[in-house]
Amino acid sequence: MNDLLQIAIDGPASAGKSTVAKLVAHQLGYVYCDTGAMYRAVTWAALKRGVKLDDNLALEEMVAEIKISFTPSDEGQRVYVDQDEVTDDIRLPEIANNVSTVAAQLSVREALTKRQQEIAFKGGIVMDGRDIGTTVLPDAQVKIFLVASVKERALRRFKENKAKGIMADLEQLEQEIAERDRKDSTRAVSPLVQAADAVKVDTTMLSIEQVVAKIMGIIQKKSKK
Ligand code: CDP
Ligand code: CDP
């Protein structure tokens, strides 16, 4: 496998995108880019500055002023907004419940899409999100659309919270995930939708290792063509 590929992994919340994208990138020696973290970081900055979350123009100005950066560390990628480390804060429910509103704004999408295209330009990248295969990298050689039932995805978030010592309400998690899916899939700009040339992988009954093996198989098949 000599060519440096662009690998796009899209799908709804908690389908396992970031977990498997990181592992696939590691196996290939590629860079991993979590585009959801970028939308979350913009949401964090808007809440901190008191910018209205659906004010397209105000968000445009704010996004032009802030710098979102990633740095690798032993515990994974750290996310910064200017000098502030926001790695943990962007995972809080307050961000999860507001990010879809910010991500629906055209100015935010245009600015972040441009940045993501620059990051992926040379290939050798695994990028996960909602619109990577459709909008950000329409020519990506490998496109995966990861799905799982809402029940299974809520359970995954529940377990994730429990491991951090947070007891969440499973039913509420299910409702929040379903609501975010609805907003992400119905927005006017770059909605969450499977690209025509993406391979769908249903992870409901699969372990992380099984999903990674499946994706590595798809990549190998594609790169032989
Ligand atoms: O990890 P999780 O699936 O919960 O979400 P995420 O990947 O961190 O993305 C958070 C939110 O950012 C999504 O619900 C979308 O509203 C938005 N997003 C987007 O619109 N486009 C992307 N390429 C990535 C994320
Ligand atoms: O990035 P996305 O929101 O799509 O999902 P994630 O944060 O990678 O995965 C959500 C949770 O599901 C994590 O705790 C994973 O360990 C878990 N997971 C799983 O249990 N089985 C899979 N096949 C994939 C992920």
UniProtKB/TrEMBL annotation:
A matching Pfam family: Cytidylate_kin
Chain positions recorded as ATP binding sites: 11-19
Catalytic activity: dCMP + ATP = dCDP + ADP; CMP + ATP = CDP + ADP
Keyword Kinase: yes
Main subcellular location of this protein, as a coarse class: cytoplasm
Gene3D superfamilies to which the protein is assigned, alphabetical: P-loop containing nucleotide triphosphate hydrolases
Compartments where located: Cytoplasm
UniProt entry keywords in alphabetical sequence: ATP-binding, Coiled coil, Cytoplasm, Kinase, Nucleotide-binding, Transferase
Domain of life: Bacteria
EC primary class: transferase
A GO-annotated cellular component: cytosol
BP GO annotations: nucleobase-containing small molecule interconversion; pyrimidine nucleotide metabolic process
CDD domains: CMPK (cd02020)
Residue ranges that the Swiss-Prot or TrEMBL entry lists as coiled coil: 156-183
Domain Cytidylate kinase: 7-220
GO-annotated molecular function: ATP binding; CMP kinase activity; dCMP kinase activity
EC number annotated for this UniProt entry: 2.7.4.25
Family: Belongs to the cytidylate kinase family. Type 1 subfamily.
Protein name: Cytidylate kinase
Organism: Liquorilactobacillus aquaticus DSM 21051
